[in-house]
Amino acid sequence: MEFVMAVVIGVKFAAGTYMILRPSLIRVVMGFALYSNAANLLLITCGGYSFDWESPFIASNDRPLMDPLPPDIILTAIVISFAVGALLLTVAYRVYLDHDTDDPEKLPPDSLA
Amino acid sequence: MNRWLILPVLVPFLTAVLLALLNGHPRVERALNLISCVGLSVYAFWLLGHVDQNGIQAMVIGGWYAPWGIAFVADRLAAIMLCLSMSVGTLVLVYSFFTAEPRQERYFFHPLFQVLLLGVNWSFITGDLFNLFVAYEVMLIGSYGLMMVGASKPQVRQTLKYIAINGIGSTLFVVGCGLVYATLGTLNMADIALRSSQLEGAPAALVTAVSMLLMVVFALKAAAFPLFFWLPDSYPIVPAGVNGYFAGLLTKVGVYSLLRLFVLCFRQPGAELVLEVLLVLAGFTMLFGVLGALCQWEIRKILSWHIISQVGYMVMGIGLAAGGADVAQAAVAATIFYVVHHIVVKSSLFLIGGIAGRVSGSQQLEQMGGVVELAPGVAALFLVSAFSLAGLPPFSGFFAKFVLIRAGLADGAFVIVFVSLVTSFLTLYSMSKIWSYAFWRSPGRATAEGRYRAMMVPTTVLVVFTVGMGVVAEPFLRLANDAARDLVDPRAYQAAVLLPVPAAEATLSAREVLRP
């Protein structure tokens, strides 16, 4: 199972990197989303899992407990990456409205107001 | 157990909420913002005195004891950084009362400023790696907002780049946290120090590899080579005034985290590798930063490039900590002294740059000129700050470079010492370029606005501090030395954080290891 997850995480990171390097703002936003997804999957894998483990709060017998901290961290990370992703999307759209292009290479040369 | 350690986080949070509700009443907002900043500054200085007298203070959130719950820890370094954050924050706020446009204030300038303070204070006082990540995010969200407050076209465009870069950095930070938890089984910094020092062999090498990932993250935030490219584009578009806080504090949060993690936390055999890499990066950071500054013609861009080259000096101090215990102590003390010096001087230079730009009606060196005639006081302030940045006596920059280079010579790192001296000469050259174009020449366009005198007040306070820190260096050096001792020898830090666990829960090895 860990091997499968490692492959999935690797592919997601690779795809995210490819998207971020594309000359298109919307693809950068998507690449960022893929990155944060991959990071969250990696956190789940770090915590480890097994069908034999019990949830810490409703454990009824002597079976080992699941570590609650990685899911906890993932929840926080999801909220943050969602907020930052939404902001990034908004700003990317605003740049598109301002300059009528989605291609960072075609933005007018840098000028300070 | 000092429960008031929550204040540096709680006060800006509540103030930010109140300010957001009060949006549209600029006078009330200004008053509330200022009161909050001044009050918290007083607390920060009290805390510094308290920690200096009574040792490291720690609290845990919600009664969950240290390795399990989130710890807030104030050692001397954290208290020093809190003092700087709040006092520079207060001065910058006063300055921006005179520069903020009504449109910026209407679009939530004041709440965003408090969010920024919240994130910065939080990252200084937290004792938990994942909590540090959350603090970074809060700080970054505040900085995204402030960077594009008012939303002009160049602002929005540069902010997009800044968000994208930092978003990727944050993802790597989360990955680093997860891998640290997977390899060490803890995220508490004191516990990381304890557990990593007990490792050997392959697990130790694995932790070193994981810590390298975190090193990349903090090098990105600190704008160290080769991850500095985002800084000179984004800092010049920050509204005048607040850019003093950005320049002084934000990259230094990265430097602080490098100090905290790679001097205090990661102690496994082989951890020096990260410091050695940092030492090499430091040399490149200094040189590239100052060479970048030399070919710029916009005053804020020159100053932004200088931030990079100065970060190189601080990273050099951290890198020198790979030497023996004595060298490490001296190098870390020098780094802390340098950070204090740099925050003050760089903030004051950005504030002076803002005034000079207002006096001469431009930020482009080729169009500026004659500030000496139009505003001699501003010219005097610039001269002091510029000399201090380049490291001339009797200002704070001289002692900062002196202790750093002495630590470098003690370690036998002659190459990096040579690079740092060359960089220092080039810095002086670059400052003299600003001086001769912006200040010395005859006025280009005499658009001197009369309303700059009030802006001088907060700037003067910062400049006086850099002079004072050079003339009366002894107490500052003593404090930096004590702060460095807490970092190099982690036992006091670990004892303050880990020992208050009640006896019934003492399943941790901390008791056997830490109790004499």
Can you characterise this structure?
The complex is a heterodimer of chains A (about 110) and B (about 525). With about 110 residues, chain A is mostly helical. Chain A has three helices and no strands. Chain A has helices at about 1-20, 25-45, 70-100. The mean pLDDT of chain A is about 85. Chain B is mostly helical and about 525 residues long. In chain B, about 75% of the residues lie in helices and about 0% in strands. Chain B contains 22 helices and two strands. In chain B, helix 9 runs antiparallel to helix 11 (about 240-265), helix 13 runs parallel beside helix 17 and helix 13 (about 300-320) packs antiparallel against helix 18. The chains are: A mainly alpha (about 110), B mainly alpha (about 525). The interface of A and B includes residues 39, 80 and 98 of A.
Secondary structure topology:
The complex is a heterodimer of chains A (113) and B (516).
Chain A: H1 2-20, H2 25-47, H3 69-99
Helix pairs in contact in A: 1-2, 2-3
Chain B: H1 7-21, H2 26-54, E1 57-60, E2 71-74, H3 76-99, H4 102-106, H5 109-125, H6 129-147, H7 153-184, H8 189-197, H9 202-222, H10 231-234, H11 242-265, H12 272-294, H13 299-320, H14 325-360, H15 371-374, H16 376-390, H17 396-411, H18 414-440, H19 453-471, H20 473-488, H21 491-498, H22 510-514
Antiparallel strand pairs in B: 1-2
Overall pLDDT level of chain B: 88
Tertiary shape of chain A: elongated
Structural class of chain B: mainly alpha
The biggest beta sheet of chain A is recorded as:
none
Oligomer: heterodimer
* Uncertain parts of chain B: 503-509
| Estimated share of beta-strand residues of chain A | under 5%
Q: Report the uncertain regions of chain A.
A: none
- What gyration radius of chain B follows from the Cα positions, in whole Å? 22 Å
Query: How is the biggest beta sheet of chain B arranged?
Result: 2 strands, antiparallel
Distance between the termini of chain A: 54 Å
**Strand order across the biggest sheet of chain B?**
1-2
Instruction: Tell me how many strands of chain B there are.
Output: 2
Beta-strand portion of chain B reads: under 5%
Order of helices and strands of chain A: HHH
Largest interface, and how many residues on either side? A-B, 36 and 37 residues
